[in-house]
Specification:
The complex is a heterodimer of chains A (175) and B (89). Chain A is 27% helix and 31% strand. With 175 residues, chain A is an alpha+beta fold. Chain A has one domain: Gcn5-related N-acetyltransferase (GNAT) (Aminopeptidase, 3-Layer(aba) Sandwich), CATH 3.40.630. In chain A, strands 1, 2, 3, 4, 5, 6, 7 and 8 form an eight-stranded mixed sheet that branches. In chain A, a hairpin with a 2-residue loop joins strand 7 and strand 8. The longest helix of chain A is centred in the C-terminal third of the chain and has 19 residues. Chain A is elongated and about 65 Å long. Chain A starts with 7 loop residues before the first strand and ends with a helix. Chain B has one domain. Chain B is 65% helix and 4% strand. Chain B is built from four helices and one strand; from the N terminus they run ααβαα. The mean pLDDT of chain B is 91. At the A-B interface, strand 4, helix 2, strand 7 and helix 4 of A face strand 1, helix 3 and helix 4 of B. Strand 4 of chain A pairs parallel with strand 1 of chain B, so a sheet runs across the interface.
Chain lengths: 175, 89
């Protein structure tokens, strides 16, 4: 499957969601059943890299995708001293809510390309609505290794899954 | 002002139960009861989805990490250069 070198907004009339398979059931289900609905409801935005050649049904298979969403992080309780210079209100962050590469395209460095394009997209949003960091929830250890390789740090463990982050100030130096 | 409709089917027993609960709470109508319930739950679900609360020490470390200006690591810089070379839009 040849990839098209371009990420575009997911469009269910153009993109073949059903054939997407990255080997991880949760991510397959997301792109097949939830991504378009989440976009309609304003929950998240999904960008896909379509294949160059269409499937027999005329739609284009998805080689890779990423899904981003706005969020915020709040301190459990107020700081002892409000004179502390730390913010005590919820601070805005971005989520890379989902990210996956089709099994047929794995081994072609599409993972790092997808990550870089997601960071670049979020940096553009950051120019208008700035955030502290980009957060990602890791599905398994392999995913955690992938993100830590690129400098993401552990924030906490959420239901045994590592939640990682990279400061926006680091991302600002990339592009 | 309520101007739009949602219609859905439900189990007959559940409908009776909902009407009973609505009457017990003194709601003006089943609609009022269900609409309030939907509003409360939707607000909660959206807030949970859009906000995360973390322990104080983790939050403070997180903010400190975000405010100091670290350099991106080499793997990430290389990945950006690689993506640019591939001319990915």
């Amino acid at each position: 499957m040849n990839y098209s070198k371009e990420f575009v907004r997911l469009d269910k009339s153009i993109h073949d969601r059903v054939t997407f398979d990255c080997g991880e059931a949760e991510l397959n289900e997301f792109i097949q059943r939830h991504a378009a609905r989440h976009m309609d409801a304003g929950v998240s935005t999904t960008m896909v890299m379509p294949a160059i050649d269409p499937s027999p049904n005329g739609k284009y298979p998805i080689c890779a995708f990423y899904t981003i969403a706005p969020s915020s992080i709040e301190r459990e309780s107020l700081p002892d001293s409000l004179r502390k210079e730390l913010p005590y209100y919820p601070v805005p962050v971005f989520l890379i809510a989902q990210m996956a590469v089709h099994s047929d395209c794995q081994g072609l460095s599409l993972g790092k390309i997808t990550l870089v394009k997601a960071l670049e997209y979020l940096l553009n949003i950051n120019k208008h609505m700035s955030a502290y960091a980009i957060i990602v929830d890791c599905l398994n250890e392999g995913v955690e290794k992938f993100y830590s390789k690129y400098g993401f740090e552990i924030l906490e463990y959420k239901a045994n899954r590592p939640r990682m982050f990279i400061p926006m100030r680091v991302v600002e130096q990339l592009f | 002002m309520a101007t739009t409709r949602i219609e859905f089917r439900l189990d007959e027993k559940l409908k009776a139960k909902v009407e009973k609960a609505s009457a017990l709470l003194g709601a003006k109508s089943t609609t009022e009861y269900v609409v309030n319930l939907m509003n409360e739950n939707a607000t909660k679900v959206i807030a949970q989805h859009e906000n995360m609360t973390i322990k104080d020490d983790i939050f403070d470390r997180f903010i400190n990490a975000c405010e100091k200006v670290d350099k991106p690591n080499k793997a990430l810089l290389d990945a950006v250069a690689f993506t640019k070379n591939q001319d990915i839009k």
